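queue> pop job 88
queue> type: inverse folding (structure -> sequence)
queue> payload:
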């Protein structure tokens, strides 16, 4: 029988459509295959095809030349630009502001055909160090209120280039969806005087049914009320509201966890397109006792249709307990 489940953070309801229950092989999808490209702007030797780098990990080579293992460059077609003043204005009942922000691309490897799941663990760790470095730099600009770190893998997930990369978009406002998550966590804290994410970590680690992976520093779980099949969260065991405050000793652990999770998804779901998003507190706000940074990984297996758009409900045909079991039993690869 179908079941409605309520997300304990946002209060959002989802429908677990058990009568439509789908195994991994039941989803219609095409595996993401990275084709070689002669004119990829992210490949070594084409550094002049991108704006000048703002960060690179190199072995003694010159900036904006080959010889790098990771590059961070401004997006050539940014959704927001760092230049200009943050002007706000009203036009009757309507509000607008200038499109000030930042949009950066993290080119994860010089190898065009390799995916993040296939890269060595140290390279995945370097990506998260680069994330942290750019957040610390950009938060110095008081105009920027929220920094979104994310990855689109595969065309179905919104990627327009095959070469493995992630992105950062800095915004002059805190997005409404982020604020809803923050407010939900705040309400839980006011009622129980505990962080809702810390409670989730404790309960899921104790129950074990929705745990996919666990280490000394992180827990990977299928959340209780997932919007999408095989949605998985990576949550630090230790409370912290801002991603950029991650401790050095935790970073290798995070890299291992993320690489292993993506490899499990590749095995179980046949190399799906996916998004991952780093959920973190607004950069200009102080450390928060009620909020807990985490990463959400969402394979692109279903589509959002009229019912979801019209109601805000999500219909998920795969119970999280089953999804966790499939991923958990895929083994360490």
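queue> result:
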């Amino acid at each position: 029988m179908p079941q409605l489940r309520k997300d304990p953070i946002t209060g959002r309801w989802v429908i677990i459509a058990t009568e439509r229950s789908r195994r991994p092989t039941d989803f219609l999808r095409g595996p993401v295959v990275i084709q070689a490209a002669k004119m990829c702007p992210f490949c070594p030797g084409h550094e002049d095809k991108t704006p000048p780098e703002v960060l690179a990990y190199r072995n003694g080579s010159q900036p904006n030349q080959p010889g790098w293992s990771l590059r961070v460059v401004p997006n050539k077609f940014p959704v927001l630009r760092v230049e200009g003043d943050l002007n706000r204005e009203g036009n009757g009942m309507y509000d607008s502001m200038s499109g000030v922000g930042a949009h950066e691309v993290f080119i994860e490897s010089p190898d065009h055909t390799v995916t993040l799941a296939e890269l060595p663990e140290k390279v995945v760790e370097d990506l998260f160090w680069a994330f942290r470095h750019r957040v610390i730099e950009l938060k110095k600009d008081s105009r920027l209120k929220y920094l979104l770190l994310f990855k689109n893998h595969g065309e179905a997930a919104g990627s327009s280039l095959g070469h493995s990369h992630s992105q950062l978009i800095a915004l002059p406002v805190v997005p409404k969806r982020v604020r809803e998550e923050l407010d939900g966590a705040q309400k839980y804290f006011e009622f129980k005087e505990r962080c809702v994410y810390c409670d989730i970590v404790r309960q899921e680690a104790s129950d074990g049914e929705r745990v996919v992976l666990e280490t000394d520093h992180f827990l990977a779980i299928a959340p209780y009320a997932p919007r999408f099949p095989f949605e998985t969260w990576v949550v630090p065991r230790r409370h912290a509201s801002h991603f950029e405050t991650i401790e050095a000793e935790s970073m290798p652990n995070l890299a291992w966890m993320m690489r292993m999770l993506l490899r499990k998804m590749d095995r179980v779901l046949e190399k799906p397109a996916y998004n991952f998003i780093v959920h973190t507190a607004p950069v200009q706000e102080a450390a928060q006792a009620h909020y807990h940074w985490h990463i959400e990984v969402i394979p692109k297996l279903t589509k959002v249709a009229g019912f979801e758009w019209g109601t805000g409900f999500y219909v998920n045909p795969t119970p999280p307990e089953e999804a966790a079991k499939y991923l958990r039993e895929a083994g360490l690869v």
